[in-house]
Amino acid sequence: MRKTNVTTAILLENIHQSANARLAEAGLQVERRTGALAGAELRQVLASHDVVGIRSATHLRADDIRSAPELLSIGCFCIGTSQVDLEAATTAGIPVFNAPFSNTRSVAELVVSEAVMLLRRIPEKNTLAHAGKWAKGAAGAFEARGKTIAIVGYGNIGSQVGVLAESMGMRVVYYDVLARLSHGSARAAGSLEEAVSQAEVVTLHVPATPRTRNMIDARILAACKPGAILINASRGSVVDIAALAAALREKRLGGAAIDVFPEEPKTNNDPFVSELQNMPNVLLTPHVGGSTEEAQENIGTEVAAKLAHFLATGGTIGAVNFPEVDPGPLHAPARLLNVHGNAPGALAALNTLLAQEGVNITGQHLQTRGHTGYVVTDLDRVPSDQLMQALRTHAGFARSRLILR
Ligand code: NAI
Known about the structure:
Catalyzes the reversible oxidation of 3-phospho-D-glycerate to 3-phosphonooxypyruvate, the first step of the phosphorylated L-serine biosynthesis pathway. Also catalyzes the reversible oxidation of 2-hydroxyglutarate to 2-oxoglutarate. About 40% of the residues are buried. Helix 1 (about 15-25) runs parallel beside helix 11 (about 295-315) and helix 5 (about 105-120) packs across helix 7 (about 155-165). The chain is elongated and about 85 Å long. Helix 9 links the parallel strand 9 (about 200-205) and strand 10. The chain starts with 7 loop residues before the first strand and ends with a strand. The protein has three domains: about 1-100 and about 295-320, 3-Layer(aba) Sandwich (Rossmann fold); about 105-285, NAD(P)-binding Rossmann-like Domain (Rossmann fold); about 325-405, ACT domain (Alpha-Beta Plaits, 2-Layer Sandwich). Helices cover about 30% and strands about 20% of the residues. It has about 400 residues and is α/β, with parallel strands linked by helices. The protein binds 1,4-dihydronicotinamide adenine dinucleotide. The site of 1,4-dihydronicotinamide adenine dinucleotide has 30 residues, from helix 5 and helix 7.
């Protein structure tokens, strides 16, 4: 059990330097490694640091997490968190943070610019020009202005795409399973078919779920306007690639920009194969929708700020696996962070132990999520080592940590 404020972080996988600056500002000592780690080497760094920062190549499995009982938090300096066994982290009382919004703008810019390129049939003309052929002509080339873009999934990215598209004079219609606030003059459609049937450009921004698997299939492609353009920078599972290839071959669709694929190479050295290769007016990109220098920098700052906030205050807003509590800055002499099984009597047991030692509670914030309860308690004095030992060995508590002012 740690009794003092925390000081060491290890950042793996060449995380952007912006993270160092933010963590150092919060008083942490930061070590860096360029590559991913696994096995004994990974366990060794987990055991000797308070915080670990990873990207997508380091896998933190249940036994890795269990091998590091002193680890306080995990920062995923990326969007996805499937490389971490989140349940094991929660059980161990470890909040996991990520950066869900840092690359939103990067994806939105790419999508809108691809729409312009495809409406003008630039990929085709570019290929011909490189091959020494001059394909000057206006036939089949259109402005974006006045055209309709259908946004499927009007969340963080989808709504940003709408704002950018509208600023270029496009009409925006969107389809989402949830009621969403329309930005600008965007209109909600009642169904996916209704959205795609009125659009010159269809762009997908839904998550990968069983419900979105192959949601763009032959039936939906048939409902699209003749010559429409399809853009997918969401997840590869969302589009039935064979059906899309058929619609492009038969020239029912005017073009496509695809950034994500059902099967993607694991590294830049692995081959990439797709039925969509070598088709005219089709842009294929290697899952780079959110890959910009700015996004990397934002990710570094965003995740580091969440980690620093947690270490300083116990606040877990933005944690992907944990009850979210925001107790604010520490004004009391001590703050006790307690993770417990979400069962009747857990909070009473904690408060009884504090009362028995005559420690007064000056503030308390509790949240639960699934099987886990997290309570942050401000105290009028620093509890004794004996009390902390009793909390640490209590059968109903997963973890107890003190932050001292
Ligand atoms: P978000 O969670 O903010 O928005 C997703 C929206 O889709 C929500 O409004 C949700 O209600 C809606 N939705 C869910 N299921 C639906 C369904 N069956 N039909 C219609 N709408 C549905 O997510 P965000 O941040 O906008 O990301 C969107 C997608 O972009 C995700 O799949 C994400 O993984 C992907 N992405 C891709 C990147 C790339 O490099 N290409 C980078 C960043 C994100």
